[in-house]
What we know:
The protein is mostly beta strands. It has strands at residues 12-13, 20-28, 37-49, 59-65, 68-72, 75-79, 84-87, 93-96, 103-110. The strands form two sheets. The protein has a six-stranded antiparallel beta sheet with strand order 1-2-3-9-4-7, with no helix packed on it. The chain has a three-stranded antiparallel beta sheet with strand order 6-5-8, with no helix packed on it. It comes from Desulforamulus aeronauticus DSM 10349.
Amino acid sequence: MFINHVNNIEKITMNAPGVNGATKQTLIGPAQGWEGWVMRQFSLAGGGHTPRHSHPWPHINYVLSGKGVLFLGGQEHTLEPGSVAYVPGDVEHQFMNKEEQELSFICIVPEEGDK
Protein backbone atom coordinates (compact mmCIF):
# COMPACT_ATOMS: atom_id res chain seq x y z
CA MET A 1 0.00 0.00 0.00
CA PHE A 2 1.11 3.54 -0.67
CA ILE A 3 -0.45 6.85 0.32
CA ASN A 4 1.13 10.25 -0.13
CA HIS A 5 0.33 13.77 -1.36
CA VAL A 6 1.65 15.37 -4.53
CA ASN A 7 3.05 18.27 -2.50
CA ASN A 8 5.39 15.82 -0.73
CA ILE A 9 6.79 14.26 -3.93
CA GLU A 10 9.99 15.66 -5.40
CA LYS A 11 9.70 17.76 -8.56
CA ILE A 12 12.52 17.03 -10.97
CA THR A 13 13.42 19.69 -13.53
CA MET A 14 13.57 18.10 -16.96
CA ASN A 15 16.84 18.81 -18.77
CA ALA A 16 16.80 17.22 -22.21
CA PRO A 17 17.00 18.50 -25.78
CA GLY A 18 13.72 20.15 -26.80
CA VAL A 19 12.41 20.56 -23.24
CA ASN A 20 11.61 23.97 -21.79
CA GLY A 21 10.09 24.82 -18.41
CA ALA A 22 9.05 21.26 -17.51
CA THR A 23 9.09 19.39 -14.23
CA LYS A 24 8.21 15.76 -13.49
CA GLN A 25 6.99 14.02 -10.37
CA THR A 26 6.86 10.23 -10.21
CA LEU A 27 3.66 9.68 -8.24
CA ILE A 28 3.23 5.91 -8.29
CA GLY A 29 5.28 3.16 -9.91
CA PRO A 30 7.15 -0.03 -9.12
CA ALA A 31 8.86 1.55 -6.08
CA GLN A 32 5.40 2.08 -4.58
CA GLY A 33 4.12 -1.38 -5.55
CA TRP A 34 2.59 -0.77 -9.01
CA GLU A 35 4.62 -3.20 -11.08
CA GLY A 36 4.82 -2.58 -14.81
CA TRP A 37 3.34 0.96 -14.81
CA VAL A 38 4.25 4.48 -13.76
CA MET A 39 1.97 7.44 -13.07
CA ARG A 40 3.75 10.78 -13.36
CA GLN A 41 2.66 14.40 -13.08
CA PHE A 42 4.22 16.86 -15.49
CA SER A 43 4.02 20.62 -15.06
CA LEU A 44 4.84 23.06 -17.83
CA ALA A 45 5.54 26.70 -16.97
CA GLY A 46 4.13 29.43 -19.19
CA GLY A 47 5.69 28.95 -22.63
CA GLY A 48 7.04 25.54 -21.60
CA HIS A 49 6.94 22.38 -23.67
CA THR A 50 8.07 18.81 -23.95
CA PRO A 51 10.19 17.79 -26.94
CA ARG A 52 8.45 16.77 -30.16
CA HIS A 53 9.19 13.05 -30.12
CA SER A 54 7.91 9.50 -30.47
CA HIS A 55 8.65 6.23 -28.69
CA PRO A 56 7.39 2.64 -28.90
CA TRP A 57 5.17 2.71 -25.80
CA PRO A 58 1.73 4.34 -25.48
CA HIS A 59 0.64 6.67 -22.72
CA ILE A 60 -2.57 8.10 -21.36
CA ASN A 61 -2.96 11.64 -20.08
CA TYR A 62 -5.36 13.62 -17.92
CA VAL A 63 -5.11 17.42 -17.64
CA LEU A 64 -5.34 18.69 -14.07
CA SER A 65 -4.95 22.45 -14.51
CA GLY A 66 -4.07 25.13 -17.00
CA LYS A 67 -4.57 25.21 -20.75
CA GLY A 68 -2.31 23.95 -23.49
CA VAL A 69 -1.92 22.15 -26.76
CA LEU A 70 -1.12 18.55 -27.61
CA PHE A 71 0.53 18.08 -30.98
CA LEU A 72 -0.43 14.52 -31.93
CA GLY A 73 -0.18 12.83 -35.29
CA GLY A 74 0.37 16.08 -37.18
CA GLN A 75 -2.50 18.05 -35.57
CA GLU A 76 -2.77 20.41 -32.61
CA HIS A 77 -5.47 19.69 -30.04
CA THR A 78 -6.56 22.14 -27.32
CA LEU A 79 -6.18 20.93 -23.74
CA GLU A 80 -7.95 22.20 -20.61
CA PRO A 81 -8.72 20.77 -17.17
CA GLY A 82 -10.55 17.49 -17.63
CA SER A 83 -9.10 16.79 -21.10
CA VAL A 84 -7.97 13.21 -21.65
CA ALA A 85 -5.72 11.80 -24.35
CA TYR A 86 -4.42 8.45 -25.51
CA VAL A 87 -1.07 8.68 -27.32
CA PRO A 88 -0.33 5.45 -29.21
CA GLY A 89 3.21 4.15 -29.45
CA ASP A 90 5.36 5.43 -32.32
CA VAL A 91 3.20 8.53 -32.92
CA GLU A 92 4.96 11.90 -32.85
CA HIS A 93 3.65 14.14 -30.06
CA GLN A 94 4.43 17.22 -27.95
CA PHE A 95 2.76 19.00 -25.04
CA MET A 96 2.91 22.81 -25.14
CA ASN A 97 1.80 25.53 -22.76
CA LYS A 98 1.02 28.64 -24.78
CA GLU A 99 -0.48 30.44 -21.75
CA GLU A 100 1.08 32.12 -18.70
CA GLN A 101 -0.57 29.85 -16.12
CA GLU A 102 1.13 26.51 -15.40
CA LEU A 103 -0.19 23.45 -17.27
CA SER A 104 -0.23 20.24 -15.20
CA PHE A 105 -1.19 16.79 -16.39
CA ILE A 106 -1.02 13.15 -15.39
CA CYS A 107 0.86 10.79 -17.71
CA ILE A 108 0.68 7.01 -17.26
CA VAL A 109 3.18 4.84 -19.15
CA PRO A 110 4.46 1.28 -19.03
CA GLU A 111 7.50 1.01 -16.77
CA GLU A 112 9.85 0.99 -19.78
CA GLY A 113 8.65 4.51 -20.63
CA ASP A 114 9.95 6.02 -17.41
CA LYS A 115 13.64 5.19 -17.70
